[in-house]
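Example record

Each entry pairs one chain with its bound ligand, FE3-S4 cluster.
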Amino acid sequence: MGLELTKEEKDMLEGEYGKATRKAMEIITTLGEIYGASRLIPVSSVQIAGVSYHNLGEAGLEYLAEMAEDGKTRVLTTLNPAGMDLEEWKKHGIDEEFARNQQRVVEAFAKMGVITTCTCTPYLIGNLPHFGEHIAWAESSAVCFANSVIGAMTNREGGPSALAAALTGRTAEYGMHLRENRVAQVGYEVQATLSSTDDFGLLGEVIGEKTGKKIPYITGIPKASTEELKSLCASIATYGGVALFHIEGITPNKTPKPEINEVITQEDLENARKTLDDETEEIDFISIGCPHASIKEIARVAELLRNKKVSESKTIWITTAKPTKDLAIKMGYYDVIESAGAFLVSDACCAVAPLKGKFKTLMTDSAKACFYARGKNKFKVKIRTIEECIREATS
Ligand code: F3S
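Structure tokens for the complex follow.
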């Protein structure tokens, strides 16, 4: 049948709306043809990934600069973390040249009308779609959160396809945009106790590795906080390819319940913990806020750091979105955290900042951060609760 376009979409493709929109429409229609879509659909929100200059490099920046010549966003669009705190980068040891290039990236996005708050939890700071809304998000943890916890509908976009959706306000209708593709495929019963963000991260690692891209239906979780769910989303999408899961009694999508194929035991979780617990005594970097910390997590960290001092041989980052950092400043949490010698870092995270070679071992409550610390930065890793991380930092 092929891909049918409206008059406006055809005009975009023919360059009536400028060069960048034409290029963007070429990307959207090519994806639509590859995946057998019959039409494009409007999206109301976009999240763009591939923002760190560390990952983009000069070639990526040139592409953005070209798109920014005449490209303008048509819908609410936010950005994933950059390689540094856009204001306080100097005190975190980021070098001037990197900072200059990172600013150029952010300026290119700003020129296109993108809201240049850099975070992987856009849903915590105002880019919050509702149930059933079609959106185009990149960033696997945010995609998983949007599809599973909110019930919005998005594929796992890449950097260029998300930008293309922002400039056209469209995406091709395939994959997660179709209800028939959102049905649970494998059943998992959790028989383990989950009591903190690191436990949920480990559960994501276990289920992610077992399920791959198949949509899981999870039972046996009586309750979960937003922070625990964002941790689960990050790791299940990292260790598997999951863009959507269902948790009985917690997530809002309706799906027929499949047979329970697998039971997840306490032992499974403990074994997963061992895989993220490298032999080393030398912990020099602690990071909390993967995905970016909520104001509730920051308040907790500030309480744990009150009247304490971070040991001189250790660096601790609590990473978050800029609006959340501003709130933390207003509430006095920033002062407590920074006067203890820890850093409340906005806009960036430990995986996309240029940290390779700067530290040896990362302690974190995030299973996803462990994955990237090992893979990209060649750090050793230790997964612990937030409380244990703070204890380690101040010991
Ligand atoms: Fe976010 Fe960075 Fe973790 S993008 S999910 S804080 S690796």
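Residues 80-81, 120, 141, 234, 290-292, 319, 349, 351-352, 368-369, 372 surround FE3-S4 cluster (CB under 6 Å).
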